[in-house]
Amino acid sequence: MVKKFSILPIIGILNMDKFYVYFIFYHFFNKNLVHFKKKKQKGKLMAEEGEVEVQKKSGGKMMLVIIIVLILLILIGGGLAAFLLLSGDNEEVSSAPQQTQQTQMQRKKGISGRSTNLLTIGPMYPMDQFVVNLLSESGGRFLKTSLDIELENQEMSPEMDMKKPAIRDIIIRTLSSKTFEEIGTEKGKERLKDEIVEKINEILADGQVKNIFFTDFVVQ
What we know:
The protein is α+β, with helices and mostly antiparallel strands. It has helices spanning 8-109, 157-162, 164-176, 180-183, 186-201, and strands at 124-126, 130-133, 142-151, 209-219.
């Protein structure tokens, strides 16, 4: 009688071995997977810490740069303000004489002609007598004259007193540069007045001479 051999126990053993293989493989894979995840998380944390550290360093550098820029701006602004203040003071000091000169030049340029208005006559400033030689071929002619100067206002008197020698010099040089023929006529005398008034006004700052009046005029 032939005995039948069953392979079920063998299949069972093979299935058991296969189960153990799967179990061991699963356990090994799961363990490595957990280890890999932990390592990955650790690396991520280190990267984040590194980024935070870099941000802190870069933030500190940026703050330092901002502080330096602010200090430079304050220094530059203060220096510029001081320069403007000092230059403004210097300009004011230096512009004062220039303004005086400009005022005088404007007065010279804006000198009006000799006034011929005899209805309203300003304050008079008398001058001492003049005796000068006239231009002539023989040199034997001379002029003796006295004159009063009409002022624009009474406030000019102190300046006229101070500049009286210069005014007399102007009048003497003007008179002695003329010939008898130039001043012997009425028109000649009027032109002489115009010239004297114009030259005197060139040296005055407080006002203008309006006219001059001859109170004595003798040619010999």
